[in-house]
UniProtKB/TrEMBL annotation:
<comment type="subunit">
    <text>Forms a ring-shaped head-to-tail homodimer around DNA.</text>
</comment>
<keyword id="KW-0235">DNA replication</keyword>
<comment type="function">
    <text>Confers DNA tethering and processivity to DNA polymerases and other proteins. Acts as a clamp, forming a ring around DNA (a reaction catalyzed by the clamp-loading complex) which diffuses in an ATP-independent manner freely and bidirectionally along dsDNA. Initially characterized for its ability to contact the catalytic subunit of DNA polymerase III (Pol III), a complex, multichain enzyme responsible for most of the replicative synthesis in bacteria; Pol III exhibits 3'-5' exonuclease proofreading activity.</text>
</comment>
<dbReference type="GO" id="GO:0006271">
    <property type="term" value="P:DNA strand elongation involved in DNA replication"/>
</dbReference>
<dbReference type="GO" id="GO:0003677">
    <property type="term" value="F:DNA binding"/>
</dbReference>
<feature type="domain" description="DNA polymerase III beta sliding clamp C-terminal">
    <location>
        <begin position="249"/>
        <end position="366"/>
    </location>
</feature>
<dbReference type="InterPro" id="IPR001001">
    <property type="entry name" value="DNA_polIII_beta"/>
</dbReference>
<dbReference type="InterPro" id="IPR046938">
    <property type="entry name" value="DNA_clamp_sf"/>
</dbReference>
<keyword id="KW-0548">Nucleotidyltransferase</keyword>
<protein>
    <recommendedName>
        <fullName>Beta sliding clamp</fullName>
    </recommendedName>
</protein>
<dbReference type="Pfam" id="PF02767">
    <property type="entry name" value="DNA_pol3_beta_2"/>
</dbReference>
<comment type="similarity">
    <text>Belongs to the beta sliding clamp family.</text>
</comment>
<keyword id="KW-0239">DNA-directed DNA polymerase</keyword>
<dbReference type="InterPro" id="IPR022635">
    <property type="entry name" value="DNA_polIII_beta_C"/>
</dbReference>
<dbReference type="GO" id="GO:0005737">
    <property type="term" value="C:cytoplasm"/>
</dbReference>
<dbReference type="Pfam" id="PF00712">
    <property type="entry name" value="DNA_pol3_beta"/>
</dbReference>
<dbReference type="GO" id="GO:0009360">
    <property type="term" value="C:DNA polymerase III complex"/>
</dbReference>
């Protein structure tokens, strides 16, 4: 059921091709599992934009073959049945599913007509720790914009840096999140570059299929697709088209600026408190840094005002900047409470830049002071 629920997320709820609303189960002979290896049992789904192959353990097979399992019906059977096992028998477009105390007869699609879904067949690839890839997704995907007319903003851009590391960047034009970390290059894979923009929806799926016991993940570019494979699953996704912003120009390298060290927990709490009185029409918060404290002030005509003070290690000239608290909260939610980060500020008109020692950076554009 766990594997089926993961795979069924790819199958569309509506489609001009009804067969896509089912998950394909392919089986070999024998029993699958770590203690009794046999030919694999694999669940497969696609919407023609993203596809997944997910290995399933603990399947006894008498006859190799394939069967189409309708997502809504078979998913309900798995959730509602109290039977510990199911026996699936299929012949043509008729499928019988038997439990110890239940029997279901289904009309199913012809498995031979299901679109082919590629396996990960490349020796030339990139290797990255699964934990790193999951962290990259979590720390960048929130900054993307699926509503924008700029199609490329609906995904995260992946590229290799000059030192051979992996960089992930997400932006919606008002804020930008960047995460980098080490990767290993095997052979001569197709480069990660300007066109490697992965849809947010596909990244959510990749994050879901990667688990704590997946140590290494392999990535490869195949024409206009990205393939990501772990120990149990392979996800293939079409890349987004369009021009991604020149993010290095957005991520400023400043010399004359003020750098303030902050701890996530207390700062996060202060931002949430100050945001209580904001509204959609008046959502900005004034952040005033100076004289050993940070003062956060918010107001909304129809709600009221807030003032929250937080002691900080900065005694320089006051700096006031107005920021959208939602953007700061999105960033802070990705970090542990005890994590320290550096906030780089110039004035009320320049972007605020937050950096963490582990390669994570975040840029937020300020709001106009007369936001009301």
């Amino acid at each position: 059921m766990q594997a089926f629920q993961t795979v069924q997320a790819v199958a569309p709820s509506r489609s001009p091709k009804p067969i896509l609303q089912s998950v394909k189960l392919e089986v070999g002979t024998g029993r699958t599992g770590e203690d009794s290896p046999g030919a694999p049992a694999t669940l497969i789904a696609t919407d023609l934009e993203v596809a997944i192959r997910h290995a399933v353990e603990g399947v006894d097979t008498e006859t190799p073959g394939a069967v189409m399992l309708p997502v809504s019906r078979f998913g309900s059977m798995l959730r509602e049945s109290s039977d510990p096992t199911f026996r699936i028998e299929t012949e043509g477009q008729k499928t019988v599913i038997r439990g110890e105390r239940s029997t279901f007869h289904l009309t199913s699609e012809n498995a031979a007509e299901f679109p082919p879904v590629a396996t990960f067949d490349g020796e030339a690839c990139y290797k990255a720790p699964a934990r790193l890839l999951k962290e990259m997704i979590r720390r960048t995907i929130f900054a993307t914009d699926n509503e924008s007319s700029r199609y490329a903003l609906g995904g995260v851009k992946f590229e290799a840096d000059d030192a051979g590391g992996l960089i992930a960047v997400g932006t919606d034009g008002r804020r930008l999140a960047r995460m980098q970390g080490p990767i290993e290059v095997v052979g001569e894979p197709s480069p990660l570059g300007e066109s490697t923009i992965v849809p947010s929806r596909s990244l959510q799926l990749i994050d879901r299929v990667l688990s704590a016991d997946d140590e290494i993940v392999r990535l490869a570019i195949r024409a206009s697709e990205l393939q990501v494979t772990s120990r149990r699953a392979t996800v293939s996704t079409r890349l987004l088209e369009g021009r991604f912003p020149k993010w290095r120009d957005v991520f400023p390298q400043r010399i004359e600026s003020v750098k303030i060290e902050l701890t996530v927990g207390p700062f996060f709490s202060a931002v949430r408190q100050a945001a209580i009185v904001t509204s959609d029409e008046s959502r900005g918060i004034d952040f005033t840094f100076g004289e050993g404290s940070l003062v956060l002030a918010g107001s909304a005509a129809e709600v009221g005002e807030s003032r929250v003070e937080l002691p900080i290690a900065y005694d320089g000239a006051p700096i006031v900047i107005t920021l959208d608290p939602r953007f700061m909260i999105d960033f802070l939610k990705t970090l542990d409470a005890e994590t320290s980060f550096t906030l780089d500020l110039v004035d009320s008109d320049a972007a605020a830049v937050a950096t963490v020692a582990d390669g994570y950076g975040y840029v937020v554009m300020p709001l106009a002071r007369d936001r009301s």
